[in-house]
Specification:
heterodimer, A: alpha+beta, 20 strands, B: mainly alpha, about 75% helix, about 0% strand
Chain lengths: ~425, ~190
């Protein structure tokens, strides 16, 4: 076989051998070909008692968006310094090489530092924040205040505490003190923020380093190293006496994405209490594995009103297309999907998800219906939703102005798509 | 994981939730929603069928049969968030059934498509030979990746594997293919 002269990417060769483009499924044709089977299926459905869509967790997910974004913002802190031991370098620092720094990082047990970051994401999002990270053996803790803003929208800030135990299969808690809300994962939990400790070591091991020599930083002398990976650049200033980093900066090669670590201290005493993962008794707690939501008080319709309000405010003053239920069909679903993307966090929105929880806990015969699509917040004439409380002959109907009225079944507002 | 990955993770969760919605709609009798799901998975399912059958037309037939079996058995689907991997399992069975039924002695080295051109043809033959030496699961992964430029997220959805596992297996499979190519006189292959 002939030798190839030019270098060729393997992926290109495989794509050419097996690849295809523009595959399109002809559903209309398929339906015609399988008409009988489809009819059989629909008959089965009709007789099986499976009916309308159940409540889904999509709104819960939207409400989690703030948490996710903020947690993600913290995750940008890819430069987490590991505690370092002084393993012996020349007193004048001339002998400090990158290997010394790496070796000390690998040997470290505890480290604390402060960090600041900023990052652009998606098309118009912007994150920023600051905080501290503590590392002790398998434990990680972050105390951070993170901010997020979409486009020209208002900024939203939140303070969080995250703790993780790598020795217990990544047990994890994330506390939002201002909302008395906690997320908890008994195992396989995930704050990527805290896992970046390991990511940093990997980046430093894999990167290509260059020593820039002795420089002055923060009024003191330091040995400066510059590292580069595929998409990031790191600058590390190390103490010439100890070969320990005193400041680290990370920047992305493209876009705004910068993190600065400072006030780095090694081998400090860190009390085990700092890593106590006991959940406060007065917090609402979401189990991230099961999505079970424990609420330490009785849920009422006021929580539903609060969540509806927050949701509408997050969508610019209009209630969402769906909330648990709503207008069926693909078009409505796509519209709702689009709303989830543009929903923005709302300042002072209270504990998220309580309204959804209230809804989920309604008895099956409560006949919940959501009709708030396109209703403006404040519109006293248009209904948003209704349900029946146990034993009641009337419905509780929430209107766009958030008033709640008791309505006889025969007097319920007429909604065209419900009539169909 | 950086913020962009987190955003993709969120988008993935939204997609999963949307699929659950679509499944709920199908189970309420809305067949159009099933069409939407088929659209979403068509490429993946054809690719999986192709990795077994190694014939584009047969693979498309298998995908259509897969959707039919899926519809008939949809009520048995226990975890709606695993619809993609459930569909993939059905597809593997359909493809294997097709082989049994037609008693085809399918040989991937012979059936993978040829292209025109001397060097290209040699390269294609060599790639096909290399893929024929992979295990079925490795071949499935490679075909999914390169059949229609599928992302790791999409692959994760149908294979039920983490992106890290997919990445590791892809790297391993690519190395095997590259090694085969190098052993057969193709120098300068970039992994």
């Amino acid at each position: 076989m002939n030798q190839q002269n030019n270098k060729k990417p393997l992926g290109e060769l495989i794509s050419r051998a097996v690849g295809r483009e523009n595959l399109k499924f002809d559903f209309s044709k398929w339906k015609v070909q399988n008409q009988k089977e489809i009819q059989d299926f629909q008959v089965q459905i009709k007789h099986s008692g499976i009916n309308n869509p159940v409540l889904t967790n999509i709104w819960r997910m939207i409400m989690n968006k703030t948490m996710t974004k903020l947690a993600a913002a913290a995750a940008i802190i890819a430069i987490v310094v590991v505690g370092m031991y002084y393993l012996g370098v020349s007193p004048d620092g001339a002998g400090v090489v990158w290997a010394d720094v790496l070796r000390n990082m690998e040997a470290s047990q505890t480290v604390t530092f402060t960090f600041e970051w900023e990052k652009e994401f998606e098309e118009s999002g912007y994150w920023w924040g600051e905080g501290t990270i503590l590392v002790k053996g398998p434990y990680r803790r972050t105390d951070a205040t993170s901010g997020i803003r979409y486009g020209d929208g208002p900024p939203h800030e939140d303070a969080t505490v995250e703790i993780m135990d790598l020795s217990r299969q990544n047990r994890f808690v994330e506390l939002h003190p201002s909302q008395k809300l906690a997320y908890y994962a008994p195992d396989h939990g995930g704050s990527d923020t805290l896992l970046t400790y390991d990511g940093l070591k990997k980046n430093f091991r894999d990167g290509t380093e260059e020593c820039l020599g002795e420089v002055e930083i923060d009024g003191r002398q330091a040995i400066c190293f510059r590292l580069s990976t595929d998409d990031k650049e790191f600058t590390v200033w190390a103490d010439p006496d100890t070969a320990l980093p005193i400041r680290i900066e990370r920047t992305a090669k493209e876009g705004i994405d910068k993190t600065v670590l400072s006030n780095i201290a090694f081998d400090v005493e860190l009390s085990d209490e700092l890593f106590d993962m006991t959940l406060p008794e007065d917090y609402c707690v979401m189990n991230m594995a099961t999505e079970e939501f424990k609420v330490p008080f009785e849920l009422t319709e006021a929580h539903l009103v609060e969540e509806l309000t927050t949701t509408a405010r997050g969508l610019g003053g209009t209630f969402p297309t769906r909330f648990g239920r709503g207008r069926p069909g693909e078009e409505a679903l796509e519209k709702y999907f689009a709303e989830t993307r543009r929903a923005v966090p709302v300042e002072g929105g209270g504990t998220p998800m309580l309204g959804t929880e209230f809804l989920k806990r309604l008895p099956e015969d409560s006949d919940w219906q959501y009709v708030g699509e396109d209703v403006k917040l404040g519109d006293a004439k248009k209904p948003v939703c209704w349900w029946k409380t146990p034993g009641s002959k009337t419905y509780r109907v929430i209107y766009g102005d958030l008033s709640i009225r008791d309505i006889e079944p025969g007097d319920l507002p007429k909604i065209p798509w419900l009539e169909e | 994981m950086d913020a962009d990955q987190q955003v993709r993770k969120l988008a993935n969760r939204v997609t999963k939730a949307l699929e659950t919605e679509l499944l709920d709609l199908v189970l309420s009798g809305d067949i159009a929603s099933f069409g939407k799901l088929c659209d979403r998975y068509y490429n993946s399912i054809v690719a999986i069928a192709y990795s077994v059958l190694t014939d584009h037309h047969l693979a498309e037939d298998a995908a259509q049969e897969t959707f039919l079996r899926a519809l008939k058995n949809l009520k048995k689907l226990k975890s709606k968030d695993k619809f993609g991997s459930w569909l993939a399992r059905i597809c593997r069975n359909v493809a294997k059934d097709m082989i049994k039924k037609e008693l085809r002695g399918i040989d991937i080295e012979n059936l993978l498509p040829l292209t025109d051109g001397g060097n290209d043809e040699h390269e294609n033959q060599a790639v096909k030979q290399a893929m024929g030496r992979l295990s079925l699961s490795e071949r499935e992964l490679i075909v999914l990746r390169y059949y229609n430029s599928m992302s790791h997220e999409q692959m994760s959805s149908v294979l039920g594997l983490s992106k890290a596992a997919i990445n590791n297996r892809l790297v391993r499979s690519r190395k095997k293919i590259a090694k085969h190519l190098q052993n057969n006189g193709f120098a300068g292959i970039e992994l």
